[in-house]
């Protein structure tokens, strides 16, 4: 694992935790969807950099 892929995966997991927290707080769906899509993009980019 190089540094960039590790950072992307950690940021993606952090944002995923934010999605779960925002859903529990009842924030608007648009915010949760935006945060979820950015989390997915970070995780996918980190995993693709591993390969």
Quick summary:
This protein is 88% helix and 0% strand. It is an all-alpha fold and 51 residues long.
Write a structural description.
This protein is an all-alpha fold and 51 residues long. It has one domain. The chain is 88% helix and 0% strand. The chain contains two helices and no strands. Helix 1 (3-25) packs antiparallel against helix 2 (29-50). It is elongated. The termini are close together. The mean pLDDT is 94.
End-to-end C-alpha gap: 10 Å
Q: Mean of the pLDDT scores?
A: 94
Strand segment tally: 0
What Rg is obtained from the alpha carbons, in whole angstroms? Answer: 12 Å
Largest sheet: none
SS-based class:
mainly alpha
Low-confidence stretches: none
How helix-rich are the residues, as a percent range?
over 70%
- Our count of helices gives 2
Assembly status: single chain
Approximate strand percentage: under 5%
Shape: elongated
Order of helices and strands: HH
What's the domain count?
Answer: 1
What are the main properties of this structure?
elongated, mainly alpha, single chain, 2 helices, 51 residues
Give the topology.
Blueprint: H1 3-25, H2 29-50
